[in-house]
Amino acid sequence: MEKEFNFAIFFCQRLDPEQDVNRRALEKELGSRIKFFTLPCSGRIESLHLMRALEAGADKVYLVTCPVGACRYKEGNTRAKKRVEFARKLIEEIGLEPERFELIHASSPFPNTIDDIARMLISREKGLTQSPLNARETKEAARNTP
Amino acid sequence: MITAERKPLPEIKESISPYKKLLIVGCGTCVAECASGGEKEVALLASALRMDAKKEGRRVEIREITLDRQCVYEFIDQLTALIDQCDAILSLGCGAGVQAIAEIFPKIHIVPALNTTFIGQTREAGLWVENCRACGDCKLDRFADVCPITRCAKSLFNGPCGGSKGGYCEVDPETPCAWHLIVTRLEESNRLDKLGSVQPPANWSKKEGKGPRKIVREDQRN
Amino acid sequence: MKPESRLRKILAAGQFAVTAECGPPKGADPEAVRKKGNLLKNCVDSVNVTDNQTGVVRLSSLASCAILREEGLDPVLQMVTRDRNRIALQSDVLGASALGIRNILCLSGDHQSFGNQPEAKGVFDIDSTQFIHLVRQMRDEGTILGGDKLTLPPELFIGAVENPFADPRSYRARRLGKKVSAGAEFIQTQCIYNLPYFKEWMQQVRDLGVDSKVYILGGVTPLKSVRMAEYMANNVAGIDIPAEIIDRLKGVPSKDQKKEGLKICVETIAELREIKGIHGVHIMAIEWEEAVAEIVEGAKLLPRPVL
User: In b/e form, how buried is each residue of A3-17, taking b as 16+ CB within 10 angstroms?
Assistant: First the structure.
């Protein structure tokens, strides 16, 4: 069976003001395998959002922020970093790979549509493995399939 | 407020391992303020425990509720309706809350998820510092409102000791020397004469009591 | 012969007193204490025994002082409030006096986190100043805390420590005054390397009129090496070692550094003798008690006066 991964992408809406249109293509292509979440500022991320995304079946959760120093609310993207760190430590405590949560600060050059951003992130993921939460489900499903 | 910190997950897991139906109970007062036991933290812990169970192929049902306070019988009562649906409670309250719940529901196992640490203040976002040790005999006005019992590592009443260095304590160089603070404050407001006479020994029986202390107010009782 | 404080007598007679420190062993061996005592016997007036210094468990100061007493020395019992509550402290004060110990140095003590028992509960029921006041009360009023009368009051010459080099510097002379008003009769200071600053501090002490109310003994510790000097200067609170001293040690080959350190120590003592208000020297040659005789001799303080 071909390995298909699930992605959740949280991002600051300033990265792509047209994101509601630009994300539709990927949403159609990947269906439930990709979920986009916009934030008014990446600093509004809560560790719980990341946890819930993983719980809901994502193999990889990204938080994409504006470039360092360019946050409209000044410290939003630095605060975001701390919350991602906190969430990473938490899942590490239960034996999940902290890398499943990843923070990306936009840096030039950077794609300027969410579609390009997402495709770039997905194509980078060579070493991604299925989340242990999904692996078990898949195993069980395989066992139960006649 | 009373501060606390979440216990390491392996320790919590060990305590809740026999249970299949868990109710995680948070507290909306002190532990919410210090980001260890409020509604958010309940949600985070629940999420982590669910994922952990899923990863290990265990079935566990986790419910979440946050009480305004876990140390007052009226609020704890809100759990009555939920008690039959769980076989253990994981409390994110301080030690006072855990015990208060256990008194009202003695038949169910209440597991503490936090280590209660100290009475303190939020100095700034994300920084809580101890400033009171509940000695039962407050003398803050004698010490320029710096508690020597709490903030001096040796609880000196006639300090500083010889280990005060650059305004910091030799026991922990990140801790300000309480006596440096006291002397400086009094010097700056010309009240150093307050330290002229020898402070006599404390009455520790007000803190130690005869075991656990209590307060009774007849005017407040039903 | 009735036991009495040689230290008190020497100071009262206007002589320049010499005391030294002796660290008890980390074991139950009384011989180790006797050995150190005998190294110091004829070159000092009194011997301090430290009390679980730095929070490291050693043979108790009280027991060590009793052993030194048997050897004919005049011990100074160092007692910290870190490890004992007021019941034990008062009891040990009576015990010390009963064993013929006639000098006590009242300290708060190094915090327990420094030693080999960091999980211990630090008692700190009372602090050093309250302890000084208490011993004074026991001796002069014959009562303990709370007012109960003693059947026989203890006989003790009461001392305390002061560190002129600790912070806040502006308060140190006044703090000394407070210990004196609490009842301290002699003071041993933390070790001195920065003489100019120490002289300034003594001026402040004299300005407060405290020098006439208490006998101050200046503390000295011989440096063994540049490493030791740098370690102390950087890691121990309240130690002020001027760069010139460290440079002096750096200026000699390492095999000669001990000798140079002893020289500096002897020179410091000579300067201390010239300071008004200084009545003696307290030599803290930690784990180098053999050096004390050489220092006292070099400082021309031998032989010790016969009383």
Answer: eebbbbbbbbebbbe
